[in-house]
Design brief:
The complex is a heterodimer of chains A (107) and B (125). Chain A is an all-beta fold and 107 residues long. Chain A is 0% helix and 49% strand. The chains are: A mainly beta (107), B mainly beta (125).
């Protein structure tokens, strides 16, 4: 099975900072990659699919890029409401594995 | 609007069984793949099982293979997870989630666009 890794595992940044999270697949997955946001005590929310397509209603400060094995999620200007854990997920085939998550908080 | 409502969680002894249900509404249930995802306390998301739109294809995480069974009743708009031989490590919040596609890998326009609120399963003696 394809394994997903994320870095960093956690980060602390100031409001307004540009934040980048990296996700890596152990084998190529084309652009079959999604990003989710899970706020504390809440249900996961789909942010991005097909590596770079923003889900409806998601703020434009979120963006995704990459293809093959290396992907990034970027928050262009971190806001207090972005405090959450972010997960990548590959879905080119079963199992649709999640990455271990990146916890983002405010410095 | 899309709603997914899980039920059936609770406290159960190791080795016993439990069946979870997920009632769906607000979309054409029979057109989409459906998943179970779990999250142990303080841990990350773990995908558990998927069933294709028509029930013809099912896949399981290695950690539950042979113990859990996913099924669906498209006439009742309901997804199920039968959990047998439960272990302490199965303790988690279980979410049902709707796939954007009819089955995993069918299209790049995938991912899980709607999630239920989750139901807690605690396996303890």
């Amino acid at each position: 099975d394809i394994q997903m890794t994320q870095s960093p595992s956690s980060l602390s940044a100031s409001v307004g900072d540009r934040v980048t999270i990296t996700c890596r697949a152990s084998q190529g997955i084309s652009n079959y990659l999604a990003w989710y946001q899970q706020k504390p005590g809440k249900v996961p929310k789909l942010l991005i699919y097909a590596a770079s397509t923003l889900q409806s209603g998601v703020p434009s400060r979120f963006s995704g890029s990459g293809s093959g094995t290396d992907f990034t999620l970027t928050i262009s200007s971190l806001q207090p409401e972005d405090v959450a854990t972010y997960y990548c997920q590959k879905y080119n085939s079963a199992p649709p594995t999640f990455g271990p998550g990146t916890k983002v908080d405010i410095k | 609007q899309v709603q997914l409502v899980e039920s059936g969680g609770g406290v159960v002894q190791p080795g016993r069984s439990l069946r979870l249900s997920c009632a769906a509404s607000g979309f054409t249930f029979s057109s989409y793949g459906m998943h179970w995802v779990r999250q142990a306390p303080g841990k990350g998301l773990e995908w558990v099982a998927v069933i294709s739109y028509d029930g013809s294809n099912k896949y399981y995480a290695d950690s539950v293979k042979g113990r859990f069974t996913i099924s669906r009743d498209n006439s009742k708009n309901t997804l199920y997870l039968q959990m047998n031989s439960l272990r302490a490590e199965d303790t988690a919040v279980y979410y049902c989630a709707k796939d954007q596609a009819w089955e995993v890998g069918a299209t790049t326009d995938g991912g899980f666009d709607y999630w239920g609120q989750g139901t807690l399963v605690t396996v303890s003696s």
